[in-house]
Write a structure and sequence with these properties.
The chain has no helices and 13 strands.
Length: 212
C-alpha cells in the first residue's frame, strides 16, 4: 500500500485529502453455478480517493464528515474447470465520524476515530467467460472504520518533520445488485447479477510528514 495525504488547518476546522493505492492477493470463497463450494485467489488493485473535514466540539473531541471514491480491479484466478475473469468496481461512499485526541508527552500524541456511513449503488464491469463484457449494478453499501493513531515530532502548527503510525479495521457490506441480461456476440445468452459481498480490512501504516 502507498499513498499521499494533504492536511490543513483553518480557524475552526481541520481538513485532509488522501489518495491510496494498494496491490495484493485476496482469498476468494464462494459457490459455483451448481452451488459447490469454491475457493481461489484474486489479484487485486484498489484505489481510494477521499476528503474529510473535522470540526472540534470539545476538549479533544471532534466530529467529521467524509466523501470517498473507491475503484477496485480484481482478477479472479481460474481453478480446475472453473474459469477466472476480471472485474472492475467503482462506487461512492459518505460517512460521519467522531475523533478523540490527547497528548502523551510534549512531542507525542494519540488519536482514536470512528466512521459510520455508506453509499448508493455503484457498478462493476465484468468480462465473464464466453460472454460479451457487461456492466452490472451494485447494491447500496454500508461501512464501519475504527482507527488508532500515534504521532510524534513537530506539532502540526510548527514547521518540520513528524511521524505517525496507525492500526485500523474496516468493514464494508454491499448489497446484491439487480439482474442484467448477458449477451454473446450481441445476442441474449443469459442473466447475471452481482451478489452481496462483505469486505474486511486490517491495516498497519507508517508515515512521515513535513509541515510547512
Amino acid at each position: 500500500m502507498a499513498g499521499l495525504r494533504l492536511e490543513g488547518q483553518c480557524p475552526s476546522i481541520d481538513w485532509s485529502a488522501q489518495w491510496m493505492l494498494s496491490h495484493g492477493d485476496r482469498g476468494y470463497d464462494g459457490l459455483t453455478n451448481t452451488q459447490t463450494p469454491f475457493q481461489s485467489q484474486s489479484k487485486l488493485q484498489a484505489q481510494r480517493l477521499s476528503a474529510q473535514v473535522w470540526l472540534p466540539v470539545g476538549s479533544g473531541w471532534s466530529v467529521g464528515s467524509q466523501l470517498a471514491y473507491v475503484g477496485i480491479d480484481r482478477s479472479i484466478e481460474g481453478r480446475g474447470n472453473v474459469r477466472g475473469y476480471p472485474e472492475r468496481f467503482s462506487y461512492l461512499q459518505a460517512a460521519l465520524g467522531a475523533r478523540y485526541q490527547a497528548a502523551l508527552s510534549a512531542q507525542t500524541r494519540w488519536a482514536a476515530s470512528l466512521w459510520l456511513g455508506g453509499g448508493p449503488g455503484g457498478r462493476v464491469r465484468v468480462e465473464l467467460p464466453r460472454f460479451d463484457p457487461r456492466t452490472l449494478p451494485l447494491g447500496s453499501s454500508r461501512m464501519l472504520t475504527i482507527a488508532v493513531e500515534l504521532q510524534g515530532g513537530a506539532a502540526r502548527n510548527q514547521p518540520g518533520w513528524s511521524w505517525q503510525s496507525s492500526l485500523s479495521y474496516r468493514y464494508e457490506q454491499t448489497d446484491a445488485g439487480d439482474a442484467r441480461i448477458l449477451t454473446r456476440n450481441a445476442l441474449p445468452a443469459g442473466v447475471a447479477l452481482q451478489p452481496r459481498f462483505d469486505q474486511r480490512h486490517f491495516g498497519v501504516t507508517l508515515g512521515a510528514n513535513y509541515h510547512f
